[in-house]
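All the exercises in this workshop are built on plain-text protein records. A learned vocabulary of local backbone shapes supplies the integers on the structure line. Once this layout is familiar, the rest of the handout is easier to follow. An example says more than a description, so a record of this kind follows:
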Amino acid sequence: MYTPDGMKDTVAPKAMTQAEIDITKQEFVQAAKNAVEAGFDGVEIHSSNGYLFHQFFSSYSNNREDKYGGSIENRARFFFEVLDAMKEVIPQNRIGARFNPSLHGTFGMEVREDTIPTFDYIIEKLSNEYDLSYIHLSEPFTDVSDVPHAVSEIAKRYRPKYKGTLMINTDFNQEKGNKVIQEGNADLVAYAKLYVSNPDLVGRFRENVATSDWDKDTFYTQEKEGYIDYEAKTRELIPTTK
């Protein structure tokens, strides 16, 4: 894992105790309070990419035998308990949630027979019982066309299942982004890394200027290189107020 001193070997994880789960819930609540007090419009729960909630969702990593393990409902319980606690301090329509249903072979995750049904349950429950600002989904990070039980086209699967605002990401360019919206499979597209290497991305899309590649070697580093040193090649129209 990445640390301020560089990459370090990880240690074998242990299952969280109930006390640690309760503390973590309150930390999410406090983080939401802090965001509101700082003037942010909303928060996103990062329940994706092998992070904590994703580890609970997956039967590959979650082998608990208590109320947080076993069934799909149990493995999703921690996420919904945190969400329910957070919406007491920030309106739920100011909360987003991120998921990566077909993550496979990276960040410690593997797709199993119950993986997609787990995300089906979570996303349908969010659609039917909550009023989030959006859900933020990732297309697979790797080719999963030959992976049993994986879904290759995430936006297409979950657009019919989710009635709210759906955001999609992973390797989108202008053409692919326009296409997924025009086909009705998403409402928003997140570009992320493309924005890092193209500070004037909107202008480039508008003016059909080629985009610059990002430098992976500068990701998660402490200096300006790779963050604020990419060159702008267009003139953005920035609204001003009087």
About this structure: The chain has two domains: 25-190, 192-235.
